[in-house]
Amino acid sequence: MSSRMIGDFRVRCDIVEDDGQGFKVRVWTRRIGGNAPEKSWLVPGQSPFPTRTEAEQGSLQIFEGINGVRFNGEPEFAHASA
């Protein structure tokens, strides 16, 4: 998966197995400069994908839906408007 810069953070997504329940997308953020560690975040309210292929497709949508990163490294996601 590719990565991109959002503000002072490098952001990337990865697929992780969810205890035999399927697969989830994990977002990794790292502040550029200094010795900041990379932090990982699960997408709030995300249901597991049944297959790795579906998770990889979903990760592209999640990756594109990240519209910011908070000071602590937590990704901010775009919300659908009502």
Quickly describe the structure.
This protein is an alpha+beta fold and about 80 residues long. It has one helix at about 50-65, and strands at about 5, 10-15, 25-30, 40, 65-70, 75. The strands form 2 sheets. It has a 4-stranded antiparallel beta sheet. The protein has a two-stranded antiparallel sheet with strand order 5-6.
The residue ranges in which pLDDT falls below 50 over 5 or more consecutive positions are none
End-to-end C-alpha gap: 31 Å
In N-to-C order, the SSE pattern is EEEEHEE
| Category from helices, strands and their pairing | alpha+beta
- Percentage beta strand: 35-45%
Roughly what is the average pLDDT, rounded to an integer? Answer: 88
- How many strands? 6
- Tell me the radius of gyration: 13 Å
Topology of this protein?
Blueprint: E1 3-6, E2 9-17, E3 23-31, E4 39-42, H1 52-64, E5 66-69, E6 75-77
Antiparallel strand pairs: 1-2, 2-3, 3-4, 5-6
Written overview of the protein:
With 82 residues, this protein is an alpha+beta fold. It has one domain. Helix content is 16%, strand content 40%. It contains one helix and six strands, in the order ββββαββ. It has one helix at 52-64; strands at 3-6, 9-17, 23-31, 39-42, 66-69, 75-77. The strands form two sheets. It has a four-stranded antiparallel β-sheet. A two-stranded antiparallel sheet has the order 5-6. A hairpin with a 5-residue loop joins strand 5 and strand 6. The termini are far apart.
